[in-house]
Write a structure and sequence with these properties.
- About 75% of the residues lie in helices and about 0% in strands.
- Helix 1 packs across helix 2, helix 2 runs antiparallel to helix 4 and helix 4 packs across helix 5.
- The chain has 6 helices and no strands.
- It has about 170 residues and is mainly α.
Length: about 170
């Protein structure tokens, strides 16, 4: 088998070496690169990936949160037939997973779109873009709860973004 980028394989699409690709393959590669480099493409991709990650995270977290038979809700659940218990459990897992997926998708799309717009406007790629995008995203998400929540959201998301950016941009030894 020959995989792109592997020794003896085809060159990486979009790399400087597009030799060996047909004209149609080159056009498709360029179109995909253009889409992925645009702010709209980055926003959509981040939203979709956030949705997928959020769904997996929500599924995992919901599977860990079932009540024990010692609680009142757990007593009601254990008195039901097995089929109804499973039905309620799967329905609950699905709704929690979808809720998490939706939230992660919105946050991912909002952050990526904002960061890309800021980067395009400033024409620089540095840590300030991520921190600014984090502040705008956190402030927007917290705005419904009032100005204090918006300020805390801004500071929290900006700090998290700065930490991630510092980790990703550090020099490797």
């Amino acid at each position: 088998m020959s995989f792109p980028g592997m020794p003896g394989g085809r060159p990486i699409p979009g790399g400087s070496d597009m030799a060996g690709m047909s004209e149609q393959e080159q056009q498709i590669t360029k179109a995909l690169q253009t889409t992925m480099e645009s702010c709209a493409g980055k926003t959509v991709m981040s939203g979709v990936m956030g949705f997928a990650l959020g769904g997996a995270f929500g599924l995992f977290m919901s599977s860990m949160s079932y009540d024990t038979p010692l609680s009142a809700q757990g007593q009601q659940l254990t008195n039901l037939p097995l089929r109804q218990q499973l039905s309620r459990g799967f329905r609950d897992m699905g709704s929690r997973s979808y809720s998490s997926a939706k939230n992660f998708g919105i946050i991912g799309a909002m952050f990526a779109g904002t960061e890309c717009c800021i980067e395009s406007y400033r024409a620089k790629s540095d840590w300030k873009n991520g921190v600014s995008a984090g502040c705008i995203t956190g402030g927007t998400l917290g705005a419904k709860a009032g100005p204090q929540a918006a300020a805390f959201g801004c500071v929290g998301f900006a700090a998290f973004s700065a930490a991630v950016d510092a980790f990703m941009r550090r020099q490797t030894d």
